[in-house]
């Protein structure tokens, strides 16, 4: 086949059929309609404000798990400092959202203004977190396993402690010290006027971000890039021998994961009915450990597992805290003052993890997905190249003689 014909066939095979294009448009419109409907019906579906906050926080954790799954699950790089990237995104988004809200001159948070505030906050959080992901990922290329884990943990703790120990009272000298004092130190950042970070991230933005991140993670896993990441995870030397650049793929995986964590931080900082201040204690090692648990629990490398793990861990950790408000639980605590439900929560949580690791160490899904990915059949594929015509003697050489039989003709 001539080169021009090969190029035409490749372009034709990549063409999308009208039915497939129409189906994608309808699915996109349905998803947009669903998240818009959630924005205006969320109070009716979940009347309890505490449960609303829990559901939104679970969706934020789903984004955290999906982003960490790129490093720990697909690329096989063990990072335990993911909370640092979430914190960077949260502080960046809080600063941007607070100043834009102040510039708008609006005292209340309106849904219409969120289309001005949230895109800028999400973009800034993702970009800044991606820059730090590049800075952390580049020097960590020579490290693997425990050594890489220590580097990422050190980065997260440095970020948290630099803000937490910053001097906020009295005179401070230097632009760095002034900026750290502006972030509020241990008390946290509460907006440019100290009135709280505007809470624009409602169900539309948080559930919408989850849908977009799930689609991106799904397409990444089943793309050539995702297959290369998984190949590097299994055998880096063999994968590099066939032309895959480990440096490029590892650094890019760090940048992608950090970007997703920054977006999750933007949602966390502006979450409706959430904490109006961004505090360094929100991004301790415990939060990084929870993120790792979400990935391992659901199954490393599985998009469905990251979603299930994020929801399960969030509700497992927070459910007993919500149950403490019931009268029966308060009566039980009054009868038994020594009963610590927070300690009991961690015992139950740890027992579930131990049982799962013994019975199913690969996680709930392993690397499989809840929905099987069907191969796409394109209608406009180029037909196969026709075979050359053959004579009857060539088609059936055993029935006669000729050039193919090696026998002399009479």
What does this structure look like?
The chain has 410 residues and is an all-alpha fold. It has one domain (48-369): ABC transporter involved in vitamin B12 uptake, BtuC. It has 16 helices and no strands. The longest helix has 28 residues, at 18-45. It starts with a helix and ends in a 15-residue tail after the last helix. The relative contact order is 0.16.
Report strand %.
Answer: under 5%
Could you say what the CATH topology is called? ABC transporter involved in vitamin B12 uptake, BtuC
The end-to-end span amounts to 38 Å
The whole-angstrom Rg is: 27 Å
Overall tally of domains: 1
* Largest sheet, strands/sense/barrel: none
Q: What is the total tally of β strands?
A: 0
The total of helices stands at 16
Helices and strands, in order, run as: HHHHHHHHHHHHHHHH
Report the average pLDDT across residues: 81
CATH class: Mainly Alpha
Which descriptor suits the 3D outline? Answer: globular
Work out the helicity level.
Answer: 55-70%
CATH architecture: Orthogonal Bundle
Assembly category:
single chain
Which segments are poorly predicted (pLDDT under 50) over 5 or more consecutive residues?
A: 1-13, 402-410
- Look at the helices and sheets and give the structural class: mainly alpha
């Amino acid at each position: 086949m001539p080169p021009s014909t090969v190029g035409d066939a490749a372009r034709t095979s990549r063409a999308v059929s009208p039915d497939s294009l129409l189906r994608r448009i309808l699915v996109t419109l349905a998803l947009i309609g669903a998240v818009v409907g959630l924005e205006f019906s969320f109070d009716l579906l979940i009347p309890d404000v505490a449960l609303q906050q829990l559901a939104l926080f679970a969706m934020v954790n789903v984004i955290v798990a999906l982003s960490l799954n790129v490093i720990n699950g697909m690329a096989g790089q063990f990072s335990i400092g993911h909370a640092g990237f979430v914190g960077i995104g949260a502080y960046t988004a809080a600063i941007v959202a607070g100043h834009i809200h102040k510039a708008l001159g609006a005292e209340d948070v309106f849904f219409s203004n969120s289309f001005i505030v949230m895109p800028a906050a999400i973009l800034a959080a993702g970009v800044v977190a991606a820059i730090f992901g590049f800075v952390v990922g580049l020097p960590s290329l020579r490290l693997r396993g425990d050594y890489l884990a220590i580097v990422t943990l050190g980065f997260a703790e440095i970020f948290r402690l630099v803000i937490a120990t910053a001097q906020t009272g009295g005179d401070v000298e230097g632009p760095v010290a002034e900026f750290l004092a502006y972030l509020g130190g241990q008390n946290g950042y509460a907006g440019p006027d100290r009135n709280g970070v505007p809470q624009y991230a409602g169900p539309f933005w948080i559930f919408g971000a989850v849908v977009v991140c799930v689609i991106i993670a799904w397409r990444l896993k089943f793309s050539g890039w995702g297959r290369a990441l998984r190949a590097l995870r299994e055998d880096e030397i063999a994968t590099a021998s066939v032309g895959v650049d480990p440096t490029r793929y590892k650094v890019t995986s760090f940048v992608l994961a950090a970007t997703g964590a920054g977006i999750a931080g933007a949602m966390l900082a502006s979450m409706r009915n959430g904490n109006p201040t961004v505090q360094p204690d929100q991004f301790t090692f415990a939060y990084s450990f929870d993120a790792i648990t979400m990935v391992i629990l659901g199954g490393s490398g599985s998009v469905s597992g990251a979603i299930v793990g994020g929801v399960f861990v969030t509700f497992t950790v927070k459910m007993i805290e919500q149950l403490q408000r019931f009268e029966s639980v308060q009566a039980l605590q009054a009868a038994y003052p020594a009963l610590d439900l927070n300690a009991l929560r961690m015992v139950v949580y740890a027992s579930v993890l131990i049982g799962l690791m013994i019975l199913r160490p690969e996680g709930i899904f392993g690397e499989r997905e809840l929905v099987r990915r069907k191969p796409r059949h394109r209608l406009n594929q180029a037909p196969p190249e026709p075979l050359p015509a053959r004579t009857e003697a060539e088609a059936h050489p055993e029935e006669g003689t000729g050039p193919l039989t090696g026998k002399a003709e009479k």
